[in-house]
Amino acid sequence: GAGVSQSPSNKVTEKGKDVELRCDPISGHTALYWYRQSLGQGLEFLIYFQGNSAPDKSGLPSDRFSAERTGGSVSTLTIQRTQQEDSAVYLCASSLLGPTGYGYTFGSGTRLTVV
Amino acid sequence: SQELEQSPQSLIVQEGKNLTINCTSSKTLYGLYWYKQKYGEGLIFLMMLQKGGEEKSHEKITAKLDEKKQQSSLHITASQPSHAGIYLCGAEPNTGNQFYFGTGTSLTVIP
């Protein structure tokens, strides 16, 4: 597709359940980022994939969070045993390789609500 | 789809010069966020504007949201090489569950 696609757009889950969020980046974009946006707060970096390199997981808030990127394209963010504080909009972005000054393209996010 | 227009796409300025980056939406915004990304690093939250006419400053960076809450400008005074990076605006529309970003402005400051 022309843009970054995220699914589902909305997810309501019960506390303690696992959830999977999906991101389809723009074809050919080697860099993929996951961010979390809580209401009224800044964007929180979660994880960064660049090509075949080991991902930068430094932003993952706990071991309940994990992410994969298969075949250098689609990425899945998994949250196990969800808690209410996990409620947020989860955003995925992709960009061309390297510090060339090109901007990001963000998906429109998955709004996760844990009840 | 991208709902925010950001301009200019790139900017090269001499150190010490002032500059302005604009972010325009076709929809009234609930909240407007400004971020900065240094090359190869994660996004850094700069500030959030929510009220029409609101203005906030952080060090030499000032952001304003217009009265109609459809346009924001980011102004840097006396730019320094440390200001270099990509500036992104992001916004929440009044309704719906989505969060939109502009395509970014790449800023280069020449010493």
Runs of chain A in which pLDDT lies below 50 for 5 or more consecutive residues are 98-102
Number of strands of chain A: 10
Using the alpha-carbon principal axes, give the shape of chain A.
globular
Strand residue percentage of chain A:
over 45%
Rg of chain B to the nearest angstrom? 13 Å
Quaternary status? heterodimer
Please report the two chains with the greatest interface, counting residues with C-beta closer than 8 angstroms to the partner's C-beta. A-B, 26 and 30 residues
Approximate helicity band of chain B:
under 10%
E-strand count of chain B: 11
Question: Whole-number average pLDDT of chain B?
Answer: 85
Give the radius of gyration of chain A: 13 Å
Overview of the structural elements:
The complex is a heterodimer of chains A (about 120) and B (about 110). Chain A is mostly beta strands and about 120 residues long. Helix content of chain A is about 0%, strand content about 45%. Chain A is built from no helices and 10 strands. In chain A, strands 2, 4, 5, 8, 9 and 10 form a 6-stranded mixed β-sheet that branches. In chain A, strands 1-3-7-6 form a 4-stranded antiparallel β-sheet, with no helix packed on it. In chain B, strand 9 and strand 10 form a beta hairpin.
Please name the defining characteristics of this protein:
heterodimer; A: mainly beta; six-stranded mixed sheet; four-stranded antiparallel sheet; 10 strands; globular; B: 111 residues; five-stranded antiparallel sheet
Give a concise summary.
The complex is a heterodimer of chains A (115) and B (111). In chain A, 0% of the residues lie in helices and 46% in strands.
